[in-house]
User: Fold these one by one.
Assistant:
Number 1:
Amino acid sequence: MGAPNAILSVRNVYKYFGGVVALDNVTIDFTAGETTAIIGPNGSGKTTLINVITQWVKPDAGEIYHGSTRLNNMRIIDVVKLGIGRSFQIPRIFKELTVMENLLVGAISRLNKNYNLFGSETACVRKVNEVVSLFGFENKLDLPASQLSQGERKLLDVAMCFTLDPKILLLDEPTSGVDTKRKREVIETIIKVGHETGKTIIMIEHDIELAVEYSDSIIFLKDGKVIQNARKDEKEKVLKLIG
Ligand code: ADP
Ligand code: MG
């Protein structure tokens, strides 16, 4: 089991791809309601960490717990049902569909007998409308996603995750591809909405300054190992390490 106060615990996790050690004895406890930034060079295992937590990739050794529930070998869909959502580095939106259609597709695709998150179509639409106002999409609802800026597309992708009402959200580079000036707005919106809705956020972020500024703790991965697990007030330590 994980630490008593952790919402999510990764315990001595290893993942190998052929001869590559993508995760090398990774142990991390995530605290409910906090934002954790995962940083590290390309190929350091950041995406693999999100993949093993959400069961898109099965760890070769070690344990993953959500409270006292062991996630290892669960189906991806059952992990989502527990309230653990994720996004991908490349937004999974439909460019030809409008903003509203994207949000509805995301939510409605989960409305079926095996996987009924909402109980009814009305509840589903209510949730989508709530997400629209949280993200301030009211004036963009009829725009095709192709007409959104890159930053807005990334936010739409994250908003689609929010329609499933996760308690924990794992975001793989929510600002990648967004120009430097706009990165801050994107992160700010995600963190603001996350706080308003009490989410636990785990995000991979390349911009170290932003990562440090907007998170409660920072995990630095290198060659699949946790090199540093620092609280926000130890940010100097992290910045020095990255140098
Ligand atoms: P990051 O997200 O930090 O850039 P990744 O987790 O994507 O790193 O990758 C960590 C290492 O594992 C890299 O060496 C990468 O090439 C390798 N890797 C990741 N996924 C796969 C896969 N599906 N097949 C083979 N190798 C992989
Ligand atoms: Mg990655």
Number 2:
Amino acid sequence: MNNPNLREEVDMRRTFAIISHPDAGKTTITEQLLLFGGAIRQAGTVKGKKTGNFAKSDWMEIEKQRGISVTSSVMQFDYDGKRVNILDTPGHEDFSEDTYRTLMAVDSAVMVIDSAKGIEAQTKKLFQVVKKRGIPIFTFINKLDRDGREPLELLEELEELLDIESYPMNWPIGMGKGLEGLYDIYNNRVELYRPDNYGGERFVPLDDAGDIPENHPLKGNSLFSDVQEEVELLKEAGDSFNRKKIARGDQTPVFFGSALTNFGVQTFLETFLEFAPSPYGHKTIDGQEVSPYEQDFSGFVFKIQANMNPAHRDRIAFVRICSGTFERGMDVFLERTGKKMKLANVTQFMADTRENIQEAVAGDIIGVYDTGNYQIGDTIYEGKLKVAYEELPSFTPELFMKVQAKNVMKQKSFHKGIYQLVQEGAIQLYKTYLTEEYIIGAVGQLQFEVFQYRMQNEYNAEVIMTPMGHKIARWIDPKDLDEKMSSSRNILARDRFDQPLFLFENQFAMRWFSDKYPNVELKSLM
Ligand code: G4P
């Protein structure tokens, strides 16, 4: 479709994910952002799933049946002339490959850290995926209204554990009960936590020397003077602000704040929107790059959400638009099969009523109702564009289960189900080398639950699953393979492409193997 405003519309898009360890405050900050964007009217709408705009959407129904969050998968709102798309990346037990793949569909990421806890396990895992993509990463250190760790110590930990430079955009003035405000380095002003103690205004502009103006009640405040010195030191000794490094994901701008008390969040949002990139070009399998301003529509499927309602077999394929404009009812081609598809039944994720149909362009996410045509990683395109986007990476599973059909008479549906779900990317499948037992692998427990549920409900195949726990999966070159390498501390298997791999009991078993076979290279997926 020819859209004369395409460039302008693409340039106003900001599509990002918020990553964090559970409880760092991702939901709280997301809610604040939605409130600023006018997408929700009261806090608690996302988390508490109380009344609100979300309730009006059909997603609520699906969510109720599944009992896990679907509504919050994609949230869109307008702020300050920008159209913001936030993609949810669940932590906890919801954790799955979906979470990782979602990070393939964003242009930047925000990492939320609890100021009392610092870098936690899940943040680190998600960060590594984002880092590999080389996209900008912004950091929000949360819960400043509580006593946390020293800001400097937090930055040091961040740099050390995540191997990234940090640049503080602001610096806390006090903390917990003693929190007075933020020294907003980037905007050269102070943002007061308790404006009423200092004349009522939230922002105090600083002079050119970074000083409080004469006759302001904050003048002479010793806490502020200490922070001023600290900031001077940071400016001298720390890394300087570097836009290029930020764009590559080699430096992260760090913001402190408190999501719960809505302190520092709006400044964060405004600064973030200033620096976060608009959609970039996407690479195709043959190394070309498709510009988001290309008029023909194209996109790729990064997630398939099964509708767990047994009465409907439909699913929703989440498509990241990479170029052009989506129009309801348009015809596209599914690259893998060459089949022509009509995009008739499509959801656009406005956190608003469904009737409020907005146009979708490169950078946006659409949800295509699917009756089984799409697979994860599929490209769809309009007209003559004929592109195939790069394959989405597979992630090394960490959890494994042995799986078999409960009813031996139902082998056929068991196999059909398992192969379809594997193709869809819901789960990874392996077979033990000699005995050909089925093993499924996942990065998160939720994947197993969804697998079991769908096998039963969609394929009428009850499965027996035997947990094998954590294993370390490593692939080897088939030419190195010797069946004698298999021992009691590892399991030799092959993946669905017939490639050999070992499932090691633990690090120790893997090291033992490497010592014994120093010439055999052990490879992981992403
Ligand atoms: P998550 O999505 O990252 O898992 O975190 P979520 O926002 O649900 O926040 C986890 C807990 O931390 C919540 O408390 C929330 O209220 C609290 N929290 C978030 N931001 C801040 C902050 O800036 N300061 C303080 N002091 N607390 C914060 P909860 O008791 O687990 O839940 P709730 O009953 O309050 O909803």
